[in-house]
Each structure stands twice: as structure tokens, then as C-alpha cells.
What does this fold into?
Amino acid sequence: MKKLTLSLIAVLISFVSSAQYVSPGTGLTLSLDDIAAASPSTVSGEDGEYLISENITISEGDTLNIEGDLFIEMEEDVLITIAGIFNVDGGEEEGILFTAADIEAPFEGFRFEQGSEITLRGATFEYGGGLRVLTENFLVEWCVFLDIVGGGATTSAVIQLSRGVPIIRHNLIGHNYLPAIGSAANVAVSPFIFDNMILDNNLDNSNRPQINLGVSLADTPTIIRDNLIIGNEETTMVGGIALANLVGTNLNGEISGNIIAENRYGITVIGKADDVKIFDNIIEGNNTQNEPMQGGSGISISSGSAGNPVQIYRNEIRENLWGITVIDAKVNLGDEGENPGNNIFADNGNSGDVVALYNNSSFEIQAKNNCWIEGQESTYEDVEEVIVHAFDDPTLGEVFFDPFLCGVLGVEDFLSEKFTFYPNPATDVINFENKDFDFVAIYDLGGRLISEVQTITGTNQLELNLAKGIYILKFSNKKHTVSKKLIVR
It folds into this structure.
């Protein structure tokens, strides 16, 4: 009986180890049709529709090309591992679909080994595990990631990074159970994350932000630029962006031009900062947890006394529980040198108090040329009321906020301040109060006119026929024009 059991185990091990396709590593260039011919139990199908039933490993030296308009189903727990070259190209219209054969039984995902060369373009990945990116050579663009689950190739993020300068641009990463993009705390990686729509990730509601990155390379900054990062009021533990230096090495980064809204918090920087800049972001309504002692800052800096000041300028920070909180850290919000200030604050408050800046540290803060109370001509005393520093508690560092900006609004500014539409983000329709505007023009972010609609006095609804993205709406009559930003999702 014992010998029979051992024999059975040997057979099972042999079966499991053979239930995959491994390329020979001889310089082959392969397609799915080639793998189907070599191993019909691994890949079946034709004419653009395929089923992958067993693991695939592309060895070092070999190439797998997946191109065209393809529908690819993957069985439960199937993993594609690449040690060579992997090219996926469905064009800019997401022409390739990787999905689970049974959405209740997700596939394991993709593992890209160190030294592999990965290009993913124009593909949709859904109902499976994410991408474990161990390589330095990684580009993903014009792709969609939906309903990605943990426990497969990745456990920490849909796209989990490990080294180098990976490029992630023009993608939609939304409605996933993991955070969107992450890296481990102790591995140096400096990704370029540009022009992505990052929506409603970390549905598991773990205490992790949608973009969750550790230390950077010493000579190359992490760059997070021009992304839309929107949360979900039900995922109360999920932040927007975190850069964390928990191991005391390098933290270089630029966070610029992003729209960050409806998260637990907007941006946080933790640990020693070498060179971190935060500028030109719109950070609004990050208060989903609604616990001011646990989060809700538009920007939170706790970078430690050993680092350099985090540079913060030209941001719009509105309707968070706190504007900017500084915890035992050095920051610069505007000085007489290279930092222009020009941050705008409005309605950041909790427990009946408005707090644009809370300096919960002993360090002095330069914070000149900022608008501390948007929409009014403020006095020195008005500004003092929205800043917590040495004036309120002598153990805290002083904030030097004079001179400050914001004067009496002009006619155009007043109209813009008072005129609103809803919902925003929207899907197919917006509502507004018609202030006798004659036209509504819709532009994309490149300044191209998408459409122009003549309004009728008394109407207050506009139907949209727009792809997901960010647009500028210009409401106009013969005398005035009001421009507003619209998010379509």
C-alpha cells in the first residue's frame, strides 16, 4: 500500500509538471497558433478565438507575439510566465481581450521575469490575476484592467512593480479588487505613470491607496503625471497616492497635473524625502472615511526631519477634511526663490473648523503667495484662522504666509464661482441652472472642439455622448464665458 501511494504521488507530480507549455529557448518567435500546434492541450481555437487551458512559459531567448483582434479565454489558475520577449498589440482600440473562461474561476495572471522585455498595447484584461512585473523593460499603454482579483500572480496591486523605470500610460485601471499600481517598500523602482484613468480600485477596501509606491531609484524620480484618480464613497480605507520611504534609502518623485477626488485622502508622502515635488494637482473631496483623526487630508507629509523639504505649489485643494497636514516634516509651500506658492484652498474642514494648513511639527514653513480662502478678499486675521501653527500652540513651528493672494473676484470669476453643474463625474447627462447662456461648447484637453450646443432659456439639462475622459465645458453668451472641467466615466 505504501509503495502504491508513492507511485501514485509520482504520477500526479509528473502530470502536474507536464500540464503546461514551455518554449525551448532557442530563439523562436511564436504565436498562439504555433503553441496550439505544438501543444493542443495548452491552447485551442482559431480565427481569433482561443482558449488557454494550461500554463505557458516563454523561455529566455524566445518571443511570444499576440496581435490583432483576438478573444482569449483562460481557464482557472492559468499563469503566463515570460522570461523572453512578450509583445501584445491590439492597437489603440483595446482589440485584444484576455478574460476568464468562467468569471467565477479567475485565471492566475501574468509573471514577467527579470530581464524579460514586455510591451502591452491595446488589450483588455479582466476577471483574473494581475501583472507581476519583475523586469526593468516594461511598457503598458492603451490597455484596460477590470475586475482584477488578488491571490494570483499578484497580491498587492493590479500592476505590481519591482525594478527599473516601467512606463504606464493612457490606460484605464478601474473597478479592481486590488490597488491599481504598487511596488514593495524595499525595492527601488521609478515608474512613469502618465495620463491614466484610475477609478474605484481596491474594492477589497484594505488600508492601501490606489497608487501605492515605495522607494525610488537614486538618480531617477518616480513621476505620476496627468492622471484621473477617483475613489468610491463605499471604499472608506482607500487613499489616492502614497509615496513611502520606510527603509531609509531614496525617495525622489514628481506628482503633478492629476485630478484626485473621492478617496480617503489625496496624496501622502511618508519617510525621508530627497527630492519630492507636488504641483498643479486638483485635490477635492477626499473624505470618504470621514474620520479626521485618521485621514482626510488633501496632502499629508510625514517625511521626517532627516529629509529635504517637500515642494508644494500651484495645487487646488478643496473640500477635504484637512487641506495640508504636516507631521514632523519639512515642506515649502512658497518662498521668495524658486517655489511660487499659488496653492488655492477652499472649504477643507471638519468638526466645524476650516483648516487649510496644519503644521503639526516644530519646523518653520515658508508658505507665501497662496490663496488660503478662495473666493474672498481675505485679511491677515482671516488667513490666520485657517492655519494651525505656532500662533495656536507655541510647541509648533511658525508658518510664514504673508504675502497671500485672493482678492475681490472679477465678473468672470464671480460667475464661474457661482455657476455649477452636476453630477461631476457624469456618464450621459448633466444638469445646470441656465443663467441665460446661449451656447455650451465641449473641448477635449488638447483644445479641440468636440461639439457645440445652443441652449434654450429655461432648460437645465445637457445630454452627453462622450467617451470616458476629461473635458472642458464653456458656457457662453454675448457678454460672458464660464469654463468648467467635466469628468466622464
Q: What stands out?
A: Residues 411-488 form a domain with the Immunoglobulin-like fold (CATH 2.60.40.3080). The mean pLDDT is 90.
